[in-house]
Specification:
Rossmann fold; 358 residues; S-adenosyl-L-methionine; metal-binding; 14 helices; Methyltransferase_TRM13; alpha/beta
Length: 358
Amino acid sequence: MRQNLEGHVRRCPLLKQVQSLTLQPFYQKGINAGKEEDQEELETFRPKGADDLESSNDPASGSLDNILSEMKRNAVYSMTKIEHVHESICKDIQDSYQVPEACGIWIKREVDRKLPFQEKHVMQQVSILGNLEGLGVLKSSLGKERADYDDGTGIPAVVEFGAGRGYLTQMLADCYGIKRCFWLKENRTIEDLNLNAVGSLREDPYLAIGKHLCGPATDLTLRCCLGEHSNQSNAELNSVNPNLRGLAIATCCHHLCQWKHYINADHGADLPDVTDCKLHLESIEKKQCGEDYGVEEIVRNMKAVERAVLGFMCKKIIDMGRLMWMKEHGLDAQFVKYVPSSVSPENHLLIGRCPNHL
């Protein structure tokens, strides 16, 4: 078996690809991954008494009942905290479905007929570009007025993260005349990518885009573009990459987010004080914890619409934290709903413009 394995390793094309990737100048393992949680941080998020629950084998002692009661209280408190934080920071999220004139050739299907056309995806792509144009990152370039991207007024390069088949960049190239495009497909590629070391991007401004970057891929992309790495000074941490012109990221799959990757894990100090949630706990506990229910039973007894509302609150809080981080790092940034939920329930868009490229 060992001989077979060694023979396979020598021939494995995937291993050769990995080895080739690690030798590239832009490869830097884990550069955009963020930090692992400290044990103290982990303990902060563990329900009080959880260790005792794991080690206790004597429910007759009465400690098990106390632990379960505390866990129920923590579960209800977490729900209340979510509602309070959402009410405090997730205000004035605008609906911003944009249809720029430049994208008319796609809407009217005046492009290569071999390209697949799904209306819901085209609507999303069009609105992403429309919001970038509205923010001043893109310039309309119709007909003879199409921008000359070599004169310094346009965007000479586009990097698409989580590109899939690259249809968003294809629309950008067709409608805005952008020719230099780079596609990044996998989380692992983004996690290990030092964008500043990509030779073809040196000294040239670029636009970063991504449609439906799943879970932590959004955080990896923001860190990749804005360059917050552990080897930077404090002054560098709050400065925008001079080559970044702007970015647009449509987020999704928030349930896959991980604390170690989350871009704004240190933003807790700037969130509103949520201790006053405890004022409401007594009445809530009487309603939800008064009977002999476990934590799972509390959640199960919530109506489906209540669980959905709570989930959407969490999604907005996560993206609002990302917006705060973008603004802290020098971007003129917005968080909008870029398509109606009937088109896609994953309709959150983070857009930003670098002030040094006005």
